Amino acid sequence: MIDLHSVSFRYRQDWVLREISFQIRKGEFIGVIGPNGSGKSTLLKTLCRLLTPQKGEILLDLVPLKEMSQGEIARKIAVVPQEAYSLFPFRVIEMVLMGRSPHLGRLMFEGARDLEIAKKAMEWTETLPIGERLIDELSGGERKRVFIARALVQEPEVILLDEPTANLDIHHQVDFLELILNLNREKGLTIAMASHDLNIASEYCDRLILLQGGTIFKIGSPREVITRANIEKVYGCRVWVDENPISGMPRITLLKKGVRSVLTEV
Ligand code: ADP
């Protein structure tokens, strides 16, 4: 669905993404992991042309992204940003309806169908009861759900999520991830999610891209990517990797510095 060919990007002189090539398949849930500054957010931004790579090419359903209008892109790709704040005190329903704008003609207002789509998205994300509240007066978890609702009313095929679970407590992390997983499994939406939480990435994603300094260090299934050697090399700290006893997926445990555990001999 999305094809990257030797994509390189720089903000100023230093390349932040270098020669990135991979494909995102229709209906997959792909995770982008890597240390701070490794290029995760920048990569997501190039996928929806918030940033345009200076080198290489990105194809969306075989069409070069740079030949598409922002409206065309927005009808296929929705973005849930990392910091889901708004500058103006919009009500939740207004914020959600903004997601319809790629489908409206110039100077057109939302009609009954748009309101119906918004209502459905708000039911899905359980934001209907807070529809009249101001966006800035919500908790972090509620606000994230509103931004998912806004993404859904775009009726996209792909949702890009940047650190969606940052600042959420574990209850809200699980709720949020289940919502995303349902969208992926039930509605067939393609999901690309940047995450700092390696255990979450391991549990929820079909495939992971591990970035290091703007290049792909490893791409593959969580089992192929989340190994002790890969994580220690890229993050530069000691970890222990075993299996989550319930799911069987790789599980990371952080090791305190100076601990001479039996694990180091394993
Ligand atoms: P990550 O999401 O993995 O933490 P980013 O994509 O945010 O990484 O950043 C990658 C690199 O690009 C970092 O070195 C960062 O300092 C730099 N960078 C990010 N945003 C900007 C910007 N707007 N202007 C200049 N440099 C930036």
3D structure, described in words:
The protein is globular, with a radius of gyration of 19 Å. It is built from nine helices and twelve strands. The chain has a six-stranded mixed sheet with strand order 6-7-8-3-9-10, sandwiched between helices. It has a four-stranded antiparallel sheet with strand order 2-1-4-5, with helices on one face. A two-stranded antiparallel ribbon has the order 11-12. The protein has a single domain, classed as P-loop containing nucleotide triphosphate hydrolases (Rossmann fold), CATH 3.40.50. Helix 6 (170-186) links the parallel strand 7 and strand 8 (190-194). The protein has 266 residues and is of the alpha/beta class. It has helices at 40-47, 70-74, 92-98, 112-124, 140-153, 170-186, 198-204, 222-225, 228-235, and strands spanning 2-10, 15-24, 29-33, 55-60, 63-64, 77-80, 158-162, 190-194, 207-212, 215-220, 239-243, 250-254. 31% of the residues lie in helices and 26% in strands. The structure holds adenosine-5'-diphosphate. Adenosine-5'-diphosphate (ADP) binds at residues 11, 16, 34, 36-42. Adenosine-5'-diphosphate is lined by residues 11, 16, 34, 36-42.
In short:
The chain has helices at 40-47, 70-74, 92-98, 112-124, 140-153, 170-186, 198-204, 222-225, 228-235, and strands at 2-10, 15-24, 29-33, 55-60, 63-64, 77-80, 158-162, 190-194, 207-212, 215-220, 239-243, 250-254. The chain is of the alpha/beta class and 266 residues long. It has a single domain (2-221), classed as 3-Layer(aba) Sandwich (Rossmann fold), CATH 3.40.50.
